[in-house]
């Protein structure tokens, strides 16, 4: 995501970046070096930004009070990406070399553990009460379970849409929901408004992941910086593919391809062509619009105009996203 | 460790085992299956047992109150072993197949993350206050940092004993210290007695790890179930080796071997012979005795006789350990 929608919290995000480096500074130089590499490697701070925006909705905004929580959210995201990169044997992420490539798998696994633990340490220091700790522990559980489900069902062409929605909820939407919810909670918003912002976070998270899945099908490889059809190649079926498996006259051929773990580049291209020949992309785009309409409509009335505007810009941005 | 020393808390440990299975039970069957495999794979429950014993020293022992903490300690240990086994590409542990061998590396990494997060979830549910959460987050940080230091200094023959003691403290002693400390703390012991039990935990932890390192040098491969000289082979120098590097007439030859990542079995055998020809084993054993004497001497006077006796038996057991 680009920056204008977060202009209203620009100064807060600058302090957050400094805080993140402080959070991974250790008496052991190597650990500091690894941690600093990870927290400065191009992260867009979407999660802490949502948390801080939501907190601005409350009557008693204090950056000092919010920072440990916002930092912990970014660290949890960072740690889970570090472990994902080990699993995917990725060499680069956001244009930077990954920890597993720069050091090795064991350093990357242990650094991920270290960063997860630093996040929970910050939460303890922030003294937010058990509810916040409990929700963050649930979040990390769900992130792991979401990945386990995904890894376990690759090349299986599960046609059940509930399975898909459940997976992207655990993988993406729960995280954005918690960022908004806990920001609003710690910012002191009413219980009702906390729930509204949580729903906003859920909706933009679902929309964001469906868009991400769509880009993998629609875009050229050059534009998204990885091969198009990458999900299909990895055996992950997304909304347009699941739709095509129901409606395409070539559904049997498509199913044969997406369940073949030895599929060739030609087969991936053929699968993409079958999906694009259906209305799968349009169906997915309509679902994105539905989630974003809902997100805009649940924003609490109590928000200050500039905060509401920022939240609306985030939703607009996801709808317009083409990279 | 064998059981008699924990007889006094036998009923508690039975409930703990049931609780651990409950703690890893998930709506996703595969996650439950993996979690159950991990928490029933031969763990000796030393960490939760120390926690429960220490809590029995307090005026207000309540198993119900202590269980989430004791379970969390075992889960943190389990998760760190799961990640260690991925790093070491181990197929078995305690006679059971490892998660990476039974499933694969990605499942093992994600399950480790899941179990770490469950531990922090239990701590939040237990409502012990920030001090306990903060100490456990520090523990996981230290475990990771200890491993990172160890991995980063393999085949380097660091002769500095402080480096060795620092490493085994982070790897083992800090964990046993925290088990005793937090058990005593939640059990309601006085601040002074909490500190005494923390020191007891530190001392038996240091003694336990030095003994472990000694066994790798002294025992036959059959007895310890892995090749003798395994640490040397992996480039990890332990107390007797560090001592030999200072005092042996063959120190230069020994250093040449332990810094050679391509060492052969013959070279490992020669390194073991050089170490055994010095008083390195005796020096290490004397250090173990020193730690255990200190451990027995710091036990608080306020302990009930059967609890004190159990703590003394643990120390005796570590001193007599030959497997």
Please provide a written account of the structure.
- 2 copies of one chain form a homodimer.
- By secondary structure, chain A is mainly α.
- Chain A has 2 domains: 1-127, Farnesyl Diphosphate Synthase; 130-323, Farnesyl Diphosphate Synthase, CATH 1.10.600.10.
- Chain A is built from 16 helices and 2 strands.
- Chain A has helices at residues 10-23, 29-39, 46-56, 63-88, 99-102, 105-126, 130-152, 161-186, 191-218, 221-224, 230-233, 239-247, 251-258, 265-276, 280-297, 305-320, and strands at 92-93, 96-97.
- In chain A, strand 1 (92-93) and strand 2 (96-97) form a beta hairpin.
- The termini of chain A are close together.
- In chain A, 51% of the residues are buried.
- Chains A and B meet through helix 2, helix 4, helix 6 and helix 7 of A and helix 2, helix 4, helix 6 and helix 7 of B.
């Amino acid at each position: 995501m680009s920056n204008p929608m977060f202009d209203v919290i620009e100064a807060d995000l600058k302090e957050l970046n400094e805080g993140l480096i402080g959070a991974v500074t250790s008496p052991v130089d190597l650990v500091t070096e690894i941690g600093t590499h990870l927290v400065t490697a191009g992260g867009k701070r979407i999660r802490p930004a949502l948390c801080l925006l939501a907190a601005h909705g409350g009557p008693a905004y204090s950056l000092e009070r919010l920072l440990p929580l916002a930092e912990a959210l970014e660290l949890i995201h960072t740690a889970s990406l570090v472990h994902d990169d080990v699993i995917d044997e990725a060499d680069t992420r956001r244009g930077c070399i990954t920890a597993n490539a720069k050091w090795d798998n064991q350093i990357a696994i242990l650094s991920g553990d270290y960063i997860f633990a630093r996040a929970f340490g910050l939460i303890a220091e922030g003294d937010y009460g058990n509810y916040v700790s409990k929700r963050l522990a649930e979040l990390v559980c769900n992130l792991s379970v979401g990945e386990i489900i995904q890894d376990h069902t690759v090349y299986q062409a599960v046609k059940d849409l509930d399975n898909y929605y459940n997976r992207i909820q655990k993988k993406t939407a729960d995280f954005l929901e918690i960022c908004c919810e806990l920001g609003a909670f710690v910012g002191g918003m009413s219980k009702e408004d906390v729930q509204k912002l949580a729903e906003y976070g859920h909706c933009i998270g679902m929309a964001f992941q469906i868009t991400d899945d769509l880009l993998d099908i629609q875009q050229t490889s050059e534009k998204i910086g990885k091969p198009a059809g990458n999900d299909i190649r990895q055996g992950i079926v997304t909304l347009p593919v699941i739709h095509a498996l129901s409606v395409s006259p070539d559904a049997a051929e498509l199913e044969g391809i997406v369940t073949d773990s030895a599929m060739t580049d030609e087969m991936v291209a053929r699968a993409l062509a079958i999906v694009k020949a259906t209305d799968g992309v349009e169906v997915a785009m309509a679902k994105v619009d539905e989630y974003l309409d809902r997100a805009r409509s649940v924003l609490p009335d109590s928000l200050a105009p500039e905060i509401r505007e920022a939240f609306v810009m985030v939703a607009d941005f996801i709808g317009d996203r083409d990279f």
